[in-house]
Design goal:
Elements lengths: L2 E12 L2 E10 L5 E5 L5 E9 L8 H9 L11 H8 L5 E5 L3 E9 L2 H15 L5 H7 L2 E2 L5 E2 L1 H9 L3 H13 L14 H4 L4 H11 L6 E5 L4 H9 L31 E9 L5 E12 L3 H15 L5 H6 L9 E7 L3 E12 L3 H4 L4 H21 L21 H16 L4 H21 L1 H18 L24 H8 L4 H13 L3 E9 H40 L6 H5 L15 E7 L3 H7 L7 E6 L6 H4 L9 E9 L3 E9 L11 H7 L5 E3 L10 E3 L1 H11 L2 E8 L8 E13 L3 H14 L4 H18 L3 H16 L6 H9 L1 H16 L3 H15 L3 H10 L4 H5 L1 E2 L2 E8 L6 H22 L4 H7 L6 H5 L4 E2 L13 E2 L6 E2 L32 E8 L10 H13 L4 H7 L4 E9 L4 E9 L2 H15 L2 H7 L2 H18 L3 H14 L4
Parallel strand pairs: 3-9, 10-14, 17-24, 23-27
Antiparallel strand pairs: 1-2, 2-3, 4-6, 4-9, 5-6, 7-8, 11-13, 11-14, 12-13, 15-16, 15-17, 18-22, 18-24, 19-20, 21-22, 25-26, 28-30, 29-30
Helix pairs in contact: 1-8, 2-3, 2-40, 3-9, 4-19, 10-15, 10-17, 14-18, 15-16, 25-33, 26-29, 27-28, 36-40, 37-38, 38-39
Bound molecules: zinc ion.
Zinc ion (ZN) binds next to α1 and α5.
Length: 1129
Amino acid sequence: MTFILESTSSFNAQPNQSLEINTYKYEKSDFRIIFVDVPGPLCSTTILVPTLSPNDKGLPHTLEHLIFCGSKNYPHRGYLDSLANRCLSTGTNAYTMEDCTGYTLVTAGAEGTINILPIFLDHVIQPSLRPYQFLTEIYHIDGTAKPKGVVFCEMASRENTEPDLLDLHLRMNLFQHKSTYSYECGGLTKDIKNLSNDEIIEYHKKFYDPSNVSVIICGLIDKEKVLKSLEEVPELLCSHKDSSVIDIPAIEYPPLPNVENNLISETVHFPVSDADVGSISYAWRGPALENLKDIIGLDVIFRYLYETSASPLCQRFIERKTPLASDVDFELKGTVDSSLLLIFSGVPYITEGSKDQGDDEEDNVEDSNILDEMSISKDNGNNIIEEDEYNDNLEDLFKPGVFFNKLKEIFKNFAENGFPNEEMIKKTIDRHRIKIYEMLEEDPHEVLTNYIIQDLLRYNFAVHSELHDAKHENATKPIIGTRSQIFDIMKELETYPQEFWKDLVKKYILEPPTIEVLMVPDPELANEQASKEIQDQEDRIKRLGPEKLKHLDEELKKALKDNEINIPQEVLDNMPPIPDVTKIPLFRGEVSIKQFLTSENDEEYNNNNNNMLSSSMKDDELPSPSQLITQYDLSRPFSSLQHVKTDTFFTQVKVYLNTSHIPEELRDYFVLFQEMLFCTPVEIPKEFTKDHQPKLMDYKSVVENTSELCTSNEASIGIGNEIFHASYLSETFVISASSERYKYNELCEWMMMILMFSKFDEERIISTAKNLLSQLTETKREGSDMLSAISTKIIAECNEDRGNTSLLNDLAISVFNQEPFLQKIISLVEEHKTNEIIQNLEEIQKCLLKSMEVIAEEAENNKYSPIYKKKEIIPGFVQLAMPLDYENDPIEEFLTCWDKCYKVYQTSIKEKKYDPMEITMMNHSHNDNDNDNDNDEKMEDPNDDDHHHHQKKINYNYLYKITSTFPFPRKPFNIKSIDEAHQSVIVPIAGLCTSFLIQYVESEILSPIPNEDFYAVTVLAELLTRTEGPLYTSIRGNGYAYDGSICLYLWSGQLTFSLYDSSEPQKATMEFYQIIEEMNTKEGWEKICSDFHIDTAKASVVYKNVSSKSTASGVIYSYLRGALRVIIK
Ligand SMILES: [Zn+2]
């Protein structure tokens, strides 16, 4: 045995689940392999190399790229990723940080990992590092004198963006330009130009000795097999260095200078298309990595300070009539001594110059008067914060120290008073604990790997460790698994007095110097940089001359040829077989669907009296057609429910409400509405209060209650909502929340309170609208966000079907519509027309909550409505997800709660029914009633005695088709709807350094069901797109774009070709067309689509499928997706 078990520990990833961590060390070197027994289908590997940056040339990052180009024993480029795909993975990947480089692999099942690991390690330890690889992968000048290379282009597209500049400048100041943390480990383009291949070879020698390398494997894997497979390749494990000499230094922290006001401030301009908003960020040095008490303590304090909109930082800077920022984010970064980062984004950038321009001035004066008036009228109202005690001048925000002084007040206040009360300490720790459990359930592999990396970094780089396990103080082994104590420490912290918390803020925030970076938006800089690039190229053409350029072009061609993927057939034939898919350990899951039918129909299907069909459908069965036309119970807005049980710690409720009956002019309000829910006052009806008196909860109490009860919560249009864009199912409005299991009933009731009894007020409207507008400005700067916004606009606007709810909603929530709309909202408030906004928000709420019966009834009264025309109602639906051993009947519990709340809600609506405003809004024509009532299907309804329209209730089941939601009716993409003028569009965006492109074709392969093309198209897309596949090689390999891919959107029936971060979109697109043309020839087809490649692509598809169900939430979502679109195995 040449591996020795060095240490063992365990980690409680869930309260009732303990995972074992085992560290093995190679006998003859410091090479380690650490196993974490994470359950589930995936096995993830990280090969970790601690690496430092001595400058901005990007040595660790450029080396990271070259590792994948071939190795001593596997010189063929592409071999590694073909093997990875065949081992049920999507390929290998890597990342570079300031203090380490990680090489990662995730496989479905463990067999693939065992096959790949020795080969992956061969690449890491013995890469070929040939000069031609440097040329294509890192940097070269092409025949037109353009600087190119994959890494060069990657960094060129990133280095001038706001997030990258912000991050780098915070670090440069925090580490005083003297540490690995103060350099750009990815490389700055100006320095990459001066980098040579030899420097990279030297760098590899120094940092990539096996004695510096560790492997972390999370998953259920046969450890003996892994160790044995490595023992067979001792050259990858034995050190090439004299072990008594440590030639890699520790990371030392240079002292911070004494400065005035204890603040080191820097102003950085970034190129961008508008000058509306910037960001302001702060950094401090945090506790050493092993000081978990202080680390968790600070995490808890910041969670209290920034997390919810009721928190002190949000209250002070964001949730205001005049917000000073639209978002705040905190990060405790695991540098060798940790760093604390606090970032305010969406900070309004208003200069004195912009105020002095003519007409504007008057407006501004007027504005401030209106604001004053507003605050006066507000004081007469009930209990809202008086924010005017603050004197914020927006013009000053970007002056050094101005924002900081406001921020410091918050910290000073905390250092003096601590948490508002002991209760709050406990609540915040509780919240912190549950968020960590949630994170561990969502992504145990990444979280646990990162915990272990922190132990390894301390061992390798700390000057000193309180645990005495730093290499540089002569320790011989790291203590692995220190984070297993976090839950115990949290328990301990609950007992600590206020002094402990106050001292933390003094020690880490108030006493040491603070770093401030002010990020100023600068549209001129964008133009300058663009013209400089053109000038530079012209200069290079002159300087190099045609001869030299021709030579460069020839060299490049040789290099590309040298790097081509050309794996000999016998090498391919010798690849191990694709692992047995059936052996992958899958998550457990049970699913059933219930449809709510009227009691008279109910009896046909079951003998239950509780109004639901419990002859449930298992797994992938579809409702049979006879069930589709049965008599639904119309008394609620939804008709069916999916119930999932799986390996989860949490209970989850999602209610999907249809929006097709909502008047078009109200759709503009969706975004405002979704963002306000959970953050707006709620009027709890007397039936639900202790003292039987109705109670108005102010929005801060609503926010606090939500964060106490819900692990997470959301309101949105559709699935995959990013505020101004939904992935799909945008015809529905979704409200969802999750909680610990014992809070489930409370969770249901709270969601109903939010949905049914939320109230809207001016205070919340103005602050939400302003913050949304800031976020919108930031969205407009993102190439990929704008690409989807523009596509949506074209597809939706060219499609004239006003009955296509999904497209109407997509368009309504898009940046193009929301920008003018939000501006209108802000001016309406300023013109004292807030009532109009409130009425519209209330109207949306009311519409969403209409029972199917009311929807039908109203459609009968409005012959122009799409519902009336189609005679079809698409109801909402519900999904509940529970732990496998949940004791009670969650469906019964949910329905009981819903019906109780809904009854109270309906009564409250009826009381208000004769509001004249409302009637104009609804656009009703009450006279239409008479004709429609003489229908045969009338029924007596004894319960409905106060119905004011007519005495007899119609059974709308016979008038309207109630569509089943499982599967959900789709409207696939129709390319013919797009007129010629919109078939090809180019949109210039200043400030972007690279281009983004997308092309759509129709690919309706969900209908008819089953459609056998589904499998073929899926495999084809994967075959073309996979790492080191045809698109990857010809587009990324040539440096035309960072990524080019074919993607199949099943729901909308679209097949797309897209480019991400492209420096040459035209050339990249031509490469794609060439591949397609080549596939049209016999020879080309055999080359691109050989059996080998098809098998590899299939294996890769299998991986993606397993991986999408590798967590509890993945399992829950895949059941829903399956039911909505018909399960495809
Ligand atoms: Zn990279």
